[in-house]
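Example noted here:
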Amino acid sequence: MEKDVINILIVDDEKYEGILMEKSVAWESEGFHITGNVQCAEDALALMEKQTPDIVYTDINMPRIDGLELSRRIREAYPAVHIVIVTGYREFEYAREAIHIGVEEFLLKPIQSDELLAAAVKLREQILKEREQQSKDVEIYPVLCQELLRRIVTGYIKSEEAEEKLSEYRIQLWKNKGVRGVLLIMDLEDHDVLLKLLEIMNEALGEKNYGYFSLEKNKIFFVVEETPEIKKLLGNAFEQITELGKDGTVAASVSCYYEEIDDSPKILSECEEALVDTMRDERKTLIFYEDYIEYMQQISHSYPVNFDSYRIAVKSGDQEAAVGFIDHYLEQYIFNGPLMISQLRNLGVLLFHNTMSVLKESNKHLDNEEQVKILENISGINTLQEFCRTLYALIEGTIQTISRNAGGNTVAQKAQEYIEQNLDREKLSLNLIASDLFVNASYLSRIFKQSVGESITKYIMRKRVEKSMELFDTTDLKVYEVAAAVGMPDAHYFGTSFKKYTGKTVNEYKSKNRTLSGK
């Protein structure tokens, strides 16, 4: 008598009133099933999108959307659903409006259990007659086929009953060969898109070689007959489907094939597993379960044996090299196959722990709250963009933290000390300093300017001129000797730079200083 079960949805903003309505009647033994018990109209409508009940018991006085407005919306979207108003309101206007909307029953609180059951029993007779009529209606045939496939794939009915129903509905699937499942995600709100989608499937597979049913608003599940060329046929169909859904995400997964009807739930679970774990960015994705399993086995041991080069890059402040390590890994191990969410999350965790070890080696640390937040971000990664944004930010923050130690000996200070000690080197430059300090040149340039307030090039020139002024004041060295001593052996270039910095020529400066010193 499973087909005669009547599904009931209860809607009452007073939680305990709803519980009382559900518990005061032995619904199951009377042939009814409570599909939900919610406290607002919004939840009721959301639940009905997933499973349409036969009867809705609803209160009138509810916040935001009251019971009468809910009844109007149900009547528009689900005209076959029967509505029973259960309320404490006794005004005639409410009853009259409810009848106008199409409410079959109007019960007053405090409601008695026998009244609740009596209303349901009365409506059941009408519902069963409607079902009988629908089953005879040719227009309902596709819906019945879809519902049958759904019940088979979800394991709701077993092989003996399934075979009987498949024969009754003239469905050839499982009769001669095995089947595969195909789970497709795309925007199907436009009915024309669904019709075009079915045209593509008809052309690729043949009208009788597949069936389908909707899982959710933007998810559709196909049961397709196994053939030697099924992968090629589905691949060709998917290319056309991506064009159909070119303005949004289109992703599909295909299960292994199974011959026995009782194995049918596997085709759904395999599709869901592969699709949930397959990265979906802006590109289109088609993944076969066999390939998914093989690929996951290949990558299970594909992580680098160690992260030495990554740790060295982070410790030395070479952000470019650290990011390059990640980019190289992605290119080598991930871009060659489907992008797996779990794979990126695992890589993120490994990078996180290696980054924390670098901080520890540098006598730095993040507090527990910061670490937990970063790990939460990594565990929530769903796209490649989120992965890069999260890990690149971690690298940059770590490098900045390492560059600030307790003694104030920052990377910028090390660069200043290096410049002071090497002013006489003619080819003293940003790249040379970065190389000798084992840091990335662009990172050093940025950090130096932030800390000192001027670029390294200007700082070197200023220090050279200041050093030359000191030598002119304290020694009798000739101009070319001073120029060489500050790493500028080209006397003409030295003279030009000196005037640009001091506003005086070398001779003017020396003459003025002799006058001031009495020489």
